[in-house]
Amino acid sequence: MKKEREGKKQDGKYYLRVGKTWVEVNKEVYYGYMDLVWQEEKNEDRRSRCMIGGKRCEGNCEECKHDRTGSPLSLDQMYEEDDYEAPDKQASVEDQVLSRFLHEALHKELDALPLEDQVLLHDIYFEDIPYTQRQIARKLHISQQAVSKRHLALLAELRVKLEAEICD
Asked: Which CATH fold topology does 91-168 show?
């Protein structure tokens, strides 16, 4: 089901829907709002696709023979293979404890970062609707490429610190 359009461009003017009324806005407001709408639509599309071999399926989901985790849905296969077991969706107690430990360690490391790095990671991972790199770049007054490089460097830095925490 496609959402009702929330914005439109017409005759060089920009409009956003407010209730049942179209309101004329400037270009910056239009793109600021629509970037969030488009990002959410893209995220919804990604979440709706199954994983096959570690990659998102690009096929028609209505005709797909896999579920969203990439496991086959064939009942014939289940009956043909005596050793077929349904995947266990419940996490073990050990996995839950490890997850909690990693969660706490991650937040400790995030709190130790400089404020600008905390803002960058917060806007990407902890907002209800994640900011785009372009939006973060505008907010921090740096280039989009600088945001991308800093993001990757922060992830690598956090990975090293968390691996050190786990191995200790």
From this structure: Arc Repressor Mutant, subunit A (1.10.10)
